[in-house]
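General statements about sequence and structure are easier to judge against a single worked case. When preparing material for the folding task, we compiled for one chain both its residues and its backbone structure tokens. The amino acid sequence and the backbone structure tokens for this protein are reproduced below:
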Amino acid sequence: MSKFYKIFSLLLVACFATVGAWAQTPVKTVEDLENGAAYSITVPEQSIYDEWYNEFVEDKGVSSGATYNPEFTLSFTVTGTYPINFDKDTAANPNIAGRVLNGVTLTESGKSGQTIAVANTSKIYNDQHETATLTCTAGSTLTAAFDYTGAPGSWMHGYVFIDTDNDKEFSFREGDMDQTGTEVYAYAFYSGDFTNDNSGKNNAGQTVTGNDRANINPPSFTAPTTPGTYRIRFKVDWNSVDPGGQKAADGTVTSQNGIAANGGYIVDATLEVTGSTTPEGPIAPVSITPADQSEVESFTSATITFEEDVTYDELIEVTIAQRNGLYYQKATVSVDGATVTVSAPEEITEAGTYAISVPAGAFSTADGRTNEAFTTMFAITEPAGPADTFVYTSVVPADGSEVAELSSITVTYPQWVCDYINETPFNVVDAESNVVTTASLTYNDNWEDVVIVLEEPITAEGTYTITVPAGYIYSNEGYDPSAADKGVSNGAIYNPEFTLTYTVKAASEPINTFVYKSVDPANESVVKELGDITITFPANVANEVTDTPINVINSEDGSTVTTATLDFPLGEGSDKVVLRLTAAVKENGTYTITVPEGYIYDYDEAICNPEFTLTYTVDTVNGISTVTIDSLEGKTIYTIDGRKVSGKLQRGAYIIDGQKKFVK
């Protein structure tokens, strides 16, 4: 047999070998492979020989060194076109009552909406691309509205996919909240993290948190700019840009948060994108030089650029006027394609704010579109000293300090900050200049303060720097929000660029060396009843103590007779805490109270209490009661050894009216 014949035979073996699903069911046609299942091809032993093959001998040349293949199996999975992550006939989840996708409406801006009714709401997937066709204009603005019973309380989200390259699948980037450049055209919410939906974004780039996450309808989006026929997919799912449907942690769609478990749906249709046949609206400048609100030393002309060539209607005047001034002149206008030059009659050098006013219809394109009226501003300022002199007086936490967590920084200025701050985020970088998060400015209740708030708190150890650009913070004095220079010409000043550096270092655990100095009643004393206990420490106690109840234990049987909580005494020093019993103990017996470690910290929170136990014996006959000095007037008082006393008493035990008492 020739080599060509043997190769041809091998091709036949590959083509006609046993092909089937994992159950080894034979497959006869290519169409049978379009079901998204897994398959294998088994090549029998001795189907392929090496070059020493000899067809004329019985052993085919094996005795002369020829070798042949062992039996081997090739396995593969056919996903089919526009794959989904479950069987296409999977039924909708019957256990989530009321969650039904009834239809989807696609609306092009300025036109009536087009609605697709879901053909079979009892199935998760409905392929209606042969029966449902939507149309739109290339580059138009589209809005998708999902008629989903149960929204918005279901917290499900709407997604739109368009196969713009017609490769029979929808591209997406798993884990990326920005799907620009993929075929995910619209999405109501995506956090990029299957395990955390606290915050995400939509296709407009807006941050979505809180109850806004329950909105099923995504923002508007732009249609494909190339006319053609495309597959469009509408999906209702939870926090997933996967066009095949969210898979649960175990890889299925039926476990927790899978598309089937959550009551999601997928509907495919056809989208016909046509070319623009009518003007798309007014024209607008794409750039203006000098830019709107910019400052210049003098002015001669401005350049206005449109997207396409324009012509100028000379009957319409373009003017240059000084705000609150006497200057008002008709400008000279020249056009070169898409570029328009607006010139003053002569160079303007007088300080002030000026406006170039362009009336509606001054410029038009070949298809008849015209501009809407617009104004661009510029300011000519007198030479002045530097305006970037608004320097902060203090920062909390201090610049260069160590912190356990970096989340916000309060910057204090020597005078009031104006009610304008630039809220554009700026970067927070680590020691290797990697951007770890962003920060932005806001206010607190103090008018001299500005707060730098990090988008994500930093707890990872390391050194981080935050650079606030110049001009983000203005002084209140002289500030004018309507002026191109924000009032700098009137004395307003703003911050220079400044950088703050912090080292994040995990806080060390407090050392349990905060030991009490005294206890009243004294530890191991005998009392007539056990009530509140005052504990004095050698230094001031922190402003908060742990208020978790502590058991009061009967030493004889180990039972809990009541509980106590830590509190602060009224009108006494800040070095004391009080164990307040829920109910006073009045039955004879011995009782213990164990205060766990870490319930009480010193004022600086550097050290905490070790675990300690207080023991008291309640003796209703022989126990000593506690009284205050103010309650002793008119009473007969003896010391414990029988000497009568009067006047001011020292702290200690006495016989008062025949009973043992303790004077505080």
